[in-house]
Design brief:
Blueprint: H1 8-36, H2 41-78, H3 81-108, H4 110-116, H5 124-136, H6 138-153, H7 157-180, H8 190-219, H9 231-264, H10 269-285, H11 287-305, H12 310-337, H13 339-347, H14 354-366, H15 368-383, H16 387-411, H17 416-442
Helix pairs in contact: 1-2, 1-7, 1-11, 2-3, 2-5, 2-6, 2-9, 2-11, 3-5, 3-6, 3-9, 4-5, 5-8, 6-7, 6-8, 7-8, 9-16, 10-13, 10-14, 11-12, 11-15, 12-15, 13-14, 14-17, 15-17, 16-17
Length: 457
């Protein structure tokens, strides 16, 4: 069965691998924290804070990977991989290099910034050690993420999963070497050591993915075509124009999740604890719809590449929406039914106010239908390269609706429930309305549909 054909089996297989990979990938940071914990609480705090900063900064670079993947999925649907992939890789490398250069001053200025915002003087140098290494290795992460996604898009998803599992094991082993053997003397601090370990393992995973990809392609007798003169330059300019908008949306989503929790942190310790535990369970569950949306992104891209008409794209989009909504709805019911027990388990003790945590979990889950629609329409518009619309919409709703409503809910209503539900629901309603209109008017309406941009335009 061809991997670009949309069937329930293909979609479930793709989403399932993405779910497993995201779960294993989340373990990298957990392993870093667990390995430095015996060395002292200050290292746990430093690595945890630094990882939070790095995740936010690198969310912007994720837009570059997303654009690369959208164009590769279209090329795979067109059966033009041999011609398009060398061009896309060349443009990605140039964009990654530009991104890396821009991150150098941010990395080198991280210690100054941490001091400026009043972080604990004892944590600042340790946190900066981790941030500098990870940001200077940003191009490595972009390269690994891109080639790992390429394996999945090109029908080799099991190999991509095998690489991330081996990478997880290698990261744990290397962390032990750099923290608890004679190698530790090489590094300025344990925080720097685990950061170097992470970047080195990402290099190994990127190389492993490339080797596996080339071996599989050669086994099929496929040969890549040399790009025409100037083709990579045209692709680079197009990719550099679109990627920042997609990256800005990712950063806005990150800020929209973090800032309301900073507000909630000013409430009672009981409310904060209940919100943290409810958020942990919600975040874990979100891997289900996120994995399905990854399938939406890829299979819709295949359909665009096959030259589907707007009505065919609309039919495919609605099918993919159902493929995402059904498992999410089933999971939501199960999570709410088992909520009190799960919250007690993740809360780790009897001091947790389970009733309050259950109410806050309900606030998170109430946004799930809108979350699914927003994510699916965003994936569709990313395939169509609508970066400007996505970035403007997310910026306006995050900073104009969600964060102000969260502030009002906490500092006026003194309610963690409304801080989670009010801003999330209102902003999502606005986003879904705007994206729904753009998708149906510009891409699924036979009379008005715009052609999808596929790189060189």
């Amino acid at each position: 069965m061809k991997h670009t054909e949309l069937t329930r089996r293909n979609f479930a297989g793709y989403a399932g691998v993405v779910l497993l990979m995201s779960s294993v990938g989340a373990g990298f940071s957990a392993v870093d924290l667990a390995m430095v914990a015996p060395l002292g609480l200050q290292y746990v705090a430093a690595v945890g804070l630094a990882d939070l900063v790095v995740t936010g900064v690198l969310a912007f670079a994720g837009g570059l990977v997303r654009v690369f993947c959208s164009r590769l999925a279209i090329a795979e649907g067109e059966e033009e991989r041999a011609r398009r992939l060398p061009v896309l890789v060349g443009a990605l490398l140039w964009c990654g290099l530009v991104c890396q250069v821009l991150l150098v001053p941010i990395a080198l200025g991280s210690e100054w910034f941490l001091e400026l915002i009043g972080q604990d003087p004892g944590l600042v140098p340790l946190t900066a050690d981790y941030i500098v290494v990870r940001l200077l290795g940003a191009m490595v992460l972009v390269g690994y993420a891109a080639v790992s996604e390429a394996l999945k898009i090109c029908g080799m998803r099991n190999l991509s999963f095998a690489v991330v599992v081996l990478g997880f094991l290698a990261n744990a082993g290397l962390n032990y070497v750099v923290l608890y053997t004679g190698m530790k003397s090489v590094f300025a601090s344990p925080a720097q050591a685990v950061a170097v370990s992470t970047v080195f393992v990402q290099v190994l995973m990127a190389v492993g993915c490339v080797v596996l990809f080339r071996r599989q392609i050669r086994s099929k007798g496929e040969r890549f075509e040399r790009p025409a003169p100037g083709e990579i330059g045209i692709e680079f300019r197009s990719m550099a124009r679109v990627a920042p908008g997609i990256g800005a949306r990712d950063v806005n989503d990150y800020m929209g999740a973090i800032i309301p929790f900073l507000f909630i942190g000013t409430l009672s310790p009981g409310a904060v604890a209940a919100a943290v535990v409810a958020s942990k369970l919600y975040t874990l569950f979100c891997r289900v719809p996120q994995s399905c949306v990854a399938g939406v992104f890829t299979y819709y891209g295949y359909q665009v590449g096959k030259g589907a008409t707007p009505s065919e794209l609309a039919q495919r989009g609605r099918t993919l929406l159902w493929y995402t909504a059904v498992p999410t709805a089933v999971g939501t019911v199960l999570i709410m039914a088992c909520g009190p027990w799960l919250l007690q388990f993740f809360g780790g003790g009897e001091e947790l106010d389970v009733r309050l945590a259950t109410i806050l979990l309900a606030a998170f889950m109430a946004t799930m239908p809108l979350y699914v629609m927003e994510a699916v329409y965003s994936a569709v518009l990313t395939i169509h390269q609508r970066a400007g619309l996505l970035s403007v919409t997310s910026t306006a709703t995050t900073y104009g609706i969600m964060i102000p409503l969260a502030w009002y809910s906490v500092f006026v209503l003194e309610s963690a429930f409304w801080a989670i539900a009010l801003g999330g629901i209102v902003s999502s309603v606005v986003i879904v309305a705007v994206l729904w209109r753009a998708v149906h008017r510009d891409h699924w309406d036979q009379a008005k549909a715009e052609p999808a941009e596929v790189g060189s335009v």
